Amino acid sequence: MKIKGVILTLICSIPVFAAENDNAWSCEGVSSIGFYWQEGNWQNQSYAPANYLFTIGSSGNASLIFSGYQWTFDDCISSNIIRCSTDLGNAIVMNLSTGQGAVSSIVAAAVPPEGEEANTFMERVQCNRIEN
What we know:
Layout: H1 2-19, E1 23-38, E2 41-45, E3 51-56, E4 62-66, E5 69-73, E6 77-78, E7 81-85, E8 90-95, E9 100-105, H2 107-110, E10 118-129
Antiparallel strand pairs: 1-2, 1-3, 1-10, 3-4, 4-5, 6-7, 7-8, 8-9, 9-10
């Protein structure tokens, strides 16, 4: 039984140690707008602002977690402004000095599903760095 406890402790602590070098940000949606695909047409849609956890790795990779979704990014471009996008059109752009930015998803706008519901959105966010 003790061995299982030690193994569980090791497994749970690996992400904590791996995240020490990451740059983590807590973000709140400020305002949001988008479109909702319904009955074969796009309808204007306003969305309730979401909360985001944005983690920037040391090798240009990043992760954005919100509302049960996780987007992963490779090769983010960074200077004072970080820009990350997926090949499906999900993106985040943020000013690292002010924490102001935007999150967007446009994949559904390019390929609206037949007979299904979909949405696409853009949300302004304000982020604060999480200190370890």
